[in-house]
């Protein structure tokens, strides 16, 4: 991998909005790399707070499910909240269980991906990747946080003009306390809003990171393609005499040496993808399974349920966020598949036909064949071995959600 300086890396990261936003959300949850003991203590405090929020949320949503009325739409509303909460809990604690591997992914990415030591074309590839990440993350974060904010805005609008005894909270509290009167109402309202917003951050942070990671890995595969295709344009670090440079045997040896370096980069990227698979495979499976259910329930609450405008607003944001999240997730996985499979064509485009069939030339041809053979099995993210995630997964999930919705509407 190319060498870099810490200053160059920091300067490059400071311009990447997607990385800034992703790292901020992960730090809020309490799972991110720390530079020193003080920062490590802040991460631990943030994770303890996240754990407390999740416990508090389980109690609130569990009570809501337990005391749900016989009205069907209220049961669907409670079930939707419960499924969303359980998804967040599963993702956060699965990530915490693989914390060491996750931190290794971050450190490796900082060292080998997020630096400035690229030539103009490679820098263009990385910049395009950053722009794509920024667009996807900003859109998904808007709808995810809009959902959380809607939980607070709905009761605020509903409470306009009401007496103190009639005020409502975002979530009903099943305790024998006067929650509609001051100061119980104000304290409980703030606690619930902060809890919902933190759950929203937990909902989006891991998906943002996985999207950024997949797209940056895909960009590294594209850079590797460029380097292999332009092997004959490589630049020497030291000036060589014209006679030496024209010597075909010497030139073949140099091509073989550089190509071996690119093969090592290819192997490193494959190994890195396998580590990503180890960390996120269970999360990917749950995500794909839950998406169909959430989209179905959201569609019912928006289109069919006899609900207030505030509640419809909540789930309008939620269903749009789910569809953006699914698209972002499957698109990034599909980019990884496409770019890793194109390594074979890039290796074939190397100038092996112009080299003599000496020892180095024969070795170079064998290496190219091995790279092409390995690239037939592209890097991908699969759901615990059940299926590979790609853009085709997006259409399948939407089709399944539509089927669930049809059955629910008939019921």
List keywords for this structure.
mainly alpha; disordered N terminus; 76% helix; 13 helices; 0% strand; elongated; 411 residues
In short:
The protein is mostly helical. 76% of the residues lie in helices and 0% in strands.
Can you tell me about this structure?
The protein is an all-alpha fold and 411 residues long. It has 13 helices and no strands. The protein has helices spanning 6-14, 17-29, 37-66, 72-97, 99-112, 120-158, 184-229, 242-246, 248-303, 309-341, 343-348, 359-375, 391-410. The longest helix has 56 residues, at 248-303. Mean pLDDT is 82; it is low at 1-14 and 234-246.
How much beta, percentage-wise? under 5%
Straight-line N-to-C gap: 58 Å
Sheet having the most strands: none
Sketch the topology as an H/E string, one letter per element: HHHHHHHHHHHHH
The Rg value, from CA coordinates, equals 26 Å
Instruction: Give the overall average pLDDT.
Output: 82
The total beta strand count reads 0
Number of helical segments?
Answer: 13
Segments where pLDDT lies below 50 for 5+ residues? Answer: 1-14, 234-246
Quaternary form: single chain
Helix % is: over 70%
Structural class: mainly alpha
Shape: elongated
